[in-house]
Amino acid sequence: MICGRELFVPAFAENRRPNADTPLRNAPYWNTDAQGRVCLGSMRVPEEISARAIAAWEAAYFASEFTYPSGAVRLTTHPRGFLGLWRALGRRKGFPVRFLADSKQTLQEFVETARVD
Predict the structure, then answer these.
(1) For the whole model, what pTM was predicted?
(2) Where are the alpha helices (DSSP H) in the chain?
C-alpha cells in the first residue's frame, strides 16, 4: 500500500484475493517493520502513485538495498528468528507460510491505521 510517499508491505497467509476481514501477517522482509512500513533507504521511489504504477513500486522495493530487520516486534515465528528464517529460505523453493507472524490486524484495520498516521 502506498500512503503519501510511504510504502507499506504486509503479508497474507493465503495466495488469494483478500477482503476487508482478511487477517494480515507481518512481512518478514528487511527494512520493513511489523506495521508493514518500509524504511525507503536507497529505494528509488517512483513518481507516480496509482494502480498503474504498482509494478514500478514492486521493482523499486526489491531493487533497494536491504540492510536491517526493523522494529522490536516479532516479524516471524521461525524458531531461529528473522535471520534463521532467511538462512533456511536459501535452501528452499517457496515460502513456508507457517512462519508468518500474526500482525493482529485485518486488511481493513491496516488501511484505516495507515491513513491516520
Answers:
(1) 0.81
(2) 54-63, 81-89, 107-116
